[in-house]
Amino acid sequence: MKFAILGILAALLFIPEAAFAQDAPVCAPGSTCVSADDLKAMVAILKEKQCLLKTKPSFELDPVNLVIDKEGRIFFSGAAPQPYSLRMTWCNYEATATGKVNVVAAVQEPPDWGFHFRPKAYMGVLPLEPFHSGNNARSMVDAGLMLDPFYYKFVNLDMHVGFRAVGAGIGLDIFRSFGAYAGYAVTWDGFRSNPEAALWFSFW
Prior knowledge:
Layout: H1 2-23, H2 36-54, E1 58-61, E2 66-68, E3 74-76, E4 84-90, E5 93-99, E6 113-125, H3 129-132, E7 141-152, E8 155-162, E9 165-175, E10 178-187, E11 193-202
Antiparallel strand pairs: 1-4, 2-3, 4-5, 6-7, 6-11, 7-8, 8-9, 9-10, 10-11
């Protein structure tokens, strides 16, 4: 009876050790065993590293819009209250950066003087012509084309050819495409000298 009790106790002590030996991982000599959770973490790190090596980060930028109104004022996006932002995505990483856009704008001022080619149409009067044509008021009316090859600010040199006279003089820009003219003219009929005053408009 005494030996039977000792045998039962020995069996009870051996069973847990055998069960633990069955549950423990079996590793080959010279190798290191890891748990399942550690193995999953290592695989995730390797996949992430492979993604970082084989792919490039993608960036998404906010657009910067510039608007210039008729008065020359400049408006742009990317400043407060809507800051400019940059978003980066790379594998499992995401990052966002915000900042302010500094815009340096310059407007080229047109020169004060120079040569150009600006054709015009004009309607003018030859005040001395009625005295040469028997007080015929219609003889003083002249119209035609005018060329503006040189300017200084709003003053320009003009040459004109009309159906009644040809001449040259000085024009003034009242508006961008409209102005006044005064100059010297010679009529086609008799080549008589006349002063001429006119109003003109340009084609551009």
